[in-house]
Write a structure and sequence with these properties.
Blueprint (H helix, E strand, L loop, with lengths): L1 H18 L2 H4 L7 H21 L9 H12 L2 H8 L1 H22 L12 H18 L18 H5 L3 H12 L19 H19 L3 H8 L15 H22 L11 H24 L2 H22 L7 H23 L6
Subcellular location: Membrane
Protein name: Transmembrane protein 144
Family: Belongs to the TMEM144 family.
Length: 356
């Protein structure tokens, strides 16, 4: 029963993680700091609902550190996606996320108890498949259609900081409007698909995955060490609100620093409010399911599954909706990578209870 609940939670988490950036991808988020702040509000609201569901289970400051770790990694997510595309970005940072989370649970790092699966062989074999799949994913080239416009809001700050070419392009665009008063315009952007931009984004994605992989460490440490943390809950879901509050607090601090850096003129378009919150709610549901999966399975099982399967969901969005991935070579690479990843996830799932 516990395995069934855990695997179901893994499936829910994978679908929502793979879809979380869909609400904001069609909008111009630029550096993504404001979008992340909006996400953190949606995350906090969802966390409060879970807090009520658990009967106001208490507040645990240490769990906030895991939220802060996730937030720092996620601060780079939108710029990475702009350069690598939705699917490739998620698949790359989830590979390092997978390795970090798996190693922490398997070998008992950072004060956690080592979690040895029933079949270490299947677990290792599944991990190898997942890593190979991730390396193949990195070779898939995402090419966003050049005709697809980003939705953006024009502000006085934008107008003042436009160069002559941007103003000329803006005037040309506005001349096509009936009244020239449309709030959504086409904004020229630099080439984010160049080799150097992609290399920087690739390295940033790997680093972001390390921060993602550390997100559960404080909670699992508290659960695994009852002699140190006496009276603390043994179910992960009781720590959700504290974890999410850490995300909101860290995101708010980042936004304040960003606003100071921008001299109180942050890029904060109003049309990102609801999409940003929607993305945060999707993530919060996925992360809550992740907590449930960890409780019924173990980190050595859940991390390889939940860190890699969302990439397959994101790949479906990229192919069938955004059409970012095109060409025979890319499809062949993607098919091989997804096959390897799914096979690895299945093997890791079997390693929980099946000896081999």
């Amino acid at each position: 029963m516990a395995v069934g609940v855990g695997l179901t939670a893994c499936a829910v988490s994978s679908v929502f993680f793979g879809s979380m950036f869909v609400p904001i991808k069609s909008y111009d988020s630029r550096d993504g700091i404001f979008a992340q702040w909006m996400m953190s509000i949606g995350i906090l609201l969802t966390g409060f609902v879970v807090f009520v569901y658990t009967g106001f289970s208490g507040f645990y400051p240490l769990a906030m550190l895991g939220g802060a770790s996730w937030c720092i990694g996620n601060a780079t997510a939108i710029p990475i996606i702009q350069r690598l595309g939705l699917a490739v970005s998620i698949l790359i940072w989830n590979t390092s996320n997978c390795l970090t989370g798996w190693a922490g649970g398997r070998f008992g790092l950072f004060g956690m108890n080592a979690q040895v699966p029933a079949s270490p062989f299947l677990n290792y074999l599944g991990l190898v498949f997942v890593i190979i799949g991730g390396s193949i994913f990195a070779q898939v080239r995402s090419e966003p259609p050049p005709t697809k416009a980003k939705k953006t809001s024009r502000t006085s700050f934008d107008m003042e900081n436009m160069n002559s070419e941007e103003k000329k392009a803006l005037n040309t665009t506005e001349s096509l409007d009936d009244g020239g008063l449309d709030t959504e315009v086409l904004r020229p952007v630099k080439d984010l698909n160049s080799g150097s931009q992609r290399l920087i984004a690739f390295i940033a994605a790997l680093i972001a995955g390390l921060f993602y992989g550390m997100t559960f460490v404080p909670v699992i440490r508290m659960i695994d060490n009852p002699e140190i943390y006496k009276g603390y809950p043994v179910d992960g879901i009781s720590y959700v609100f504290s974890h999410y509050f850490g995300i909101f607090l860290t995101s708010t601090i980042l936004f304040v620093i960003y606003s100071i850096f921008r001299r109180n003129q942050p890029y904060a378009p109003p049309n990102l409010f609801l999409p940003g919150m929607a993305a945060g709610i999707l993530w919060a549901i996925a992360q809550t399911s992740f907590f449930v999966a960890n409780q019924h399975l173990s980190q050595t099982v859940t991390f390889p599954i939940i860190s890699q399967m969302p990439g397959c969901i994101a790949a479906a969005w990229s192919i069938f909706y955004y059409r970012e991935i095109r060409g025979k070579r890319n499809f062949m690479l993607l098919g091989a990578a997804m096959s390897m990843t799914i096979t690895g996830a299945v093997l890791v799932g079997f390693s929980k209870d099946f000896k081999f």
